[in-house]
Structures are given as structure tokens and as C-alpha cells.
Design brief:
The protein is built from 5 helices and 4 strands. It is an alpha/beta fold.
Amino acid sequence: MSIEVLNESGVPVDEADLVALARHVLDGMRVHPLAELSVLLVDEVAMSELHEKWMGEPGPTDVLAFPMDELRPGSMSGGTDDDDEPDPGLLGDIVLCPAVAERQAAQAGHSTEDELRLLCTHGILHLLGYDHAEPEEHKEMFGLQAELLKSWRDKRAQR
């Protein structure tokens, strides 16, 4: 699995931790092991620009997800080639804003690192087609998000 993290936020972030978490989430969702994911960390100005351009909403947000291929959980790829073998795929890009995450973490009573893990997981689920606009979708997505984060914490506690 290729997971690239690029930190343009000016805030120190444990990039290796985000890569390990993303790999855990993608494995848990049974995404092809050769799929590619990009995680970009940006400052509030850059996030505001992206938020307005792509969502039509002012100000910075915490996470944006930009899917590339039609990968779905449990499916091995976004398509097949002529021999019907699954292709990996480019999952897409997640953009995180550590400054917004820091404020949200303080309100939620946990660390900025925990908030960034939550947002990264949330973004990956969006890339896989999950949404939370409707109550039933919200219940499914947030339940899955909590399950994945719990399994991540449990895995780390065993080390």
C-alpha cells in the first residue's frame, strides 16, 4: 500500500503515525494492498481556499476528501483489466488542517494527535463512499469510524 503524507501546515505532525493508522484503516476495510492514498496537511489559509473552491463554504474546515477511483470497501479495486484480475487503484487525497484539529481536540477533551487520527479515518471512509448526510448513513459511518479507531488503539496497546 502506498500512503504518502505531505505536511505543508507548518505544524509538526507524527507522519509515521498517520501512515500506520491509514494502513490499518485500509486493511480493515479490505482495500487492495497496492492502492495509493495521499494525505496532505495544510494551514488554515490553504484549507479555507480549498473549502470555498470545492464545497462553496467559507473558512477552514477540518478534513476534505477527494476520491479518485471507485474503490469500495471489500472490493479489491476500482476496476479490472482484460484478464479479470483486480487492479489496485488510486484511492484519492485527504486534506487535513492541524490548526482546526487542535481547536476541535481541545473542545472534545483529547489530544490533537487523536483528533488527526479521527479525521484521517473519517476522510478515508469518505474516499470509500461513506457519507453522513442522512441519519442512517451517519450511524453507519460513525459506527465504523469508532470501530476502526478502537481496533487501532487496541493494536497499539498490545505493543
